[in-house]
Amino acid sequence: MQELCYREIPTPAVARVRGWLHQWTAPGLSVTPLPTGLLLQQGTGEWTVVTWELQRTTYLKVFRWRPGAGEQTWLRQLTADLAREFPPQYPPFPSLDLSQQTIFTALAPYYPATARHFQNIPNGEYDLKRVYWWEQRWRQGVSQPRRNPVLFPSEAKTSPTYDLIYIGGALGVIHAAVMARLGYRVLLLERLPFGRMNREWNISRSELQTLIDLNLFTSAEVERLIACEYEDGFHQFYWPEVPQKLRAAVLHTPRVLNIAIDTNKLLTLAGQKLRQAGGEIWDECEFLRAEVGEHGVGIQFKSFRTGEQESVAGRLLVDAMGTASPIAWQLNGGRAFDSVCPTVGAVFKGLDPQVWDHRYGDVLHSHGDISRGRQLIWELFPAGNGELTVYLFHYHQPCPENPGSLLELYEDFFHILPEYRRCDLEQLQWIKATFGYIPGHFSSTFTERKVAWDRVISIGDAAALQSPLVFTGFGSLVRNLPRLTDLLDTALRHDLLGAEHLNAIRAYQGNSAVTWLFSKGMMVPTGKQLPPAQINAILNTFFGLLASTDPEVAERFIKDRSGWGEFTRMALKAAWTNPAILLWIVPLTGWGEVGRWLWSYIVFTWEALVSAVLLPWWPGLLRQWQPWLERHAPGLWLGLLARSYHLGYGVGRPRVERRLSVTQ
Description:
Layout: E1 2-9, H1 14-23, E2 30-34, E3 37-42, E4 45-54, E5 57-66, H2 71-85, H3 103-107, H4 112-118, H5 124-143, E6 151-153, E7 162-167, H6 171-181, E8 186-190, E9 201-203, H7 205-213, H8 219-225, E10 226-229, E11 232-236, E12 251-252, E13 259-261, H9 263-276, E14 280-283, E15 285-292, E16 297-303, E17 309-319, H10 326-331, E18 339-349, E19 360-365, E20 377-384, E21 387-393, H11 406-420, E22 429-440, E23 452-453, E24 456-458, H12 474-493, H13 499-502, H14 510-513, H15 516-520, H16 534-548, H17 551-558, H18 564-577, H19 581-614, H20 618-632, H21 634-649
Parallel strand pairs: 6-15, 7-8, 7-17, 8-14, 11-19, 17-24
Antiparallel strand pairs: 1-5, 2-3, 3-4, 4-5, 9-13, 10-13, 11-12, 15-16, 16-17, 18-21, 18-22, 19-20, 20-21, 23-24
Helix pairs in contact: 4-11, 6-9, 6-12, 7-12, 12-21, 16-18, 20-21
């Protein structure tokens, strides 16, 4: 027996596929229906077609039992007919009227499993409405990238009440708390009730130490924020259809994302620190627009509590609205994000200990091959008190036809979770829904992406830079917090709040930018069908190399801390191990993207060389010059300080250059 063909048919309706196969014919071919496919005969040749369903999609294989004439002719006809009958489909976003029905009733015809299981989640109705709102907002941004602007120049005189006004209270409150403790007048506007978010955060101890080094939290406070610390984390990708030589061993990373943070405690504590330093939090307020003048920025917002439009003024607006940010779309002319990871999941109890040991995490895991144009990837983290946090996500290049759907992915989540971790969904105790869009933006140089306007700056996911593995969002912000807050403090003290100065305050890392091509290799272009096992083969190639290398090197690579030498050796080893990998990636990206990547690699090589020469002595010397430079040329000082930080951060060596003196 020899396998001739392996295809993914992008539909969960395996019965419909089999019914169609039973009616299919080809000239000169004898076709006999079988329960799961077909028996084909022609002359002395004999073949079978087998179908099965996994991950809410259908897979098909053709096997040869005995060779015969005309094999390639009917095989080409079969694959072409299948492609015509079952093309990739991207369900439209449902338009709902919730004035006369609940979100559960309204969504049930489209996403029945999602509507049913959200009813068992605490605050499920509120959260499902938020899923719907977030996807609607995301789709609008993708389909209308040059939508109505929200930033406007103004001639009106502004009298700022605050130094900093943050829009967005999840990642924003951590940054805001540091700045408030530096003595600035800070206001935070949050659309939701403060402290409520639909994400859980995991991090490593080395990253968490940053919050202590900045004097934001004490060691004792940080320990109280930790919900769980697991012993080891695993990375493994589906390999039954991957060539034997590429199949990767399990990669163990005991110090990657092994700390589960109690997000409610973290946000509460950060909010307390902010208020103790004189800051204010106005929640249930939706940002509408900002008018930027010479001396300040006026912000208009709607209060959900009063229903009224209100306004407030500050010296600087800090955009922390993430992927929902209209400011990010405006700043980058409609190219706010190059990629996105739609992510859904839940926190729950009740998984049998024989199915999963709570001492371990499943950091990255694929359960099958490409499913309806996406390589689905799971994450599982112990969360303390017998709870588990489980995510399902995929890498995606958004486009108007196929922007990336949270609702569709939730339907997958509830159908596939019993396959991934043997369980009965009705027996689980649901704690919380977790979801969101994690963005990426490919910047080949330090200055390519625009993160600021006059008196406006973006941070966090709103200023997203590409990281193809696991350190996005929370981890990226915490890792870059020392340089972001130090640089912003410098800009505020010298009133360097024009776009030309604020654009130097960014979380760009050259060592992360060069991994863009890797993440592109995990995206299925809209309208295309790839060999089902192709992305798993790429993942097995890279993670197999990581599993066979020094554990410290693997850890640095996954934490976005790898240097030029480590990255280059890894890329060369991957090409040597699997020469076909470039041939797989180029059709997905095009030669234009390959050219951009080569340029980013050249830039990274130059930055690594400059860093090797200057990093051992330049930052220290620059600090010695600080008093004179800052007094006589503050703009030059800000630019040099930003470049000094980049010498380390750009090659995976973040640092706290000075322990910030805070106002208690």
